[in-house]
Amino acid sequence: MNTSVYHGQASPRQVVVMPKNASEAQVRTLLAHEFVHWLQFHSDVADTSGFGGFVDDTDSSQVAAGLVEGASVYITDAYVERYMNVSWNQTGELRAQYKQGPAGRRLFRARYLYGAQYIHSTVENPRNVSWLYDESTPTPVTSEQLIDGTAPSEEPERNLTLSVNETENWTVSSNHYDTKGEIVVRTMVRAELNRSVASAAADGWGSDHVTRAASVSPGPSAGTPPERPTSSLTRSSSGEPSGPTTSMTTIASSASTTRPWPCSPATTRSSRTRRPRARTTQSPSLRRADRRRLVIGSSGPISPPLGRTRLTQH
After folding, report:
1. Rounded distance, CA 87 to CA 10, Å?
2. What pLDDT is stored for residue 12 in this prediction?
C-alpha cells in the first residue's frame, strides 16, 4: 500500500498542494482543509495578523493552533463524509499517526488531533464552527483543557510560583518563564514509556513554569546545579492519581546539555466530573495566543493514502 506523504499549505493569497502528482482524493481533502485556513485568514474569526513572529508561551500556542487546525480537520471530515465515498477521515488518520509516529511527529500532530477531537465533541454542525471564536465562548486556555474537552471554569489554571535557588557557579540565565503544558509533557514521557503509562503520568498536568540556569564557569562540571525543591503527586477525590503536580525547569549547562528539575508543587484539580459548558464566560485562549503570534503551518500528511479511496460521481 502506497502511503506517500502529501502536504497542503495556506496563505492569505494562495493554497498550495504538494507534490503536484497527488491523487484526486488527496487533492480534494487537502483543499478542503486548506480552504478553511484561507477563510480564517479572510474573516474575523481568528486574528492572524501577527502570525509568524515570536511565541513566548508554548502551551498557549498549542491551544490556539489546536483550535485553528482542529476546525480545518473537523470541517474536512464533514466534507469527506458528505461528498466522498470513503471509510477514512483526517481525525482517524491523525489518531493513527499520533499513536505510531516518532516523538517529533507526535508532538506536531497533537495540536491537530486534540483540537479536532475537542471540536467534534463541542460543535454539532460545521455551520457553527465560528461559535468557537466568539469572545464569549469558554474555549480551552491550556492543553490540559483541550485534551479533556473542558472549559476554563472546569479545570482552571492554578497559581504557580517557580523558585530556583542560585549558587556560586549556577545562575538563572533568563527571567522569562515558559509554560510547556500537558501536550508537551505527555509527548516527552511517551518518547520513553508506553502509551498507557505516559497518559497516566501526564494526566492532570495543568500548568508548569520553565526557565534556564547556566553555569558561570567553563566546562561541564562547573559546580553544583541550583538547589531544587521537592515535588509531589496528589490524588483526586476518586482516589486515582491526578498526575504530576509540579512545575518543571530546564537546567542548561555551558555544554548545552539539558536536564529537567522538579520545582515548587502546584495544586491540581480535585475532580474530573464533567459539567455542561457555560456560554457566558469570556475565553481569551485563541486571541491571547494569537497576540503571541502563531504560524498556520502545513497540514502535513493527513490526506488519504493512494489506493485506499474511491470517489463517487456528483
Report:
1. 26
2. 78
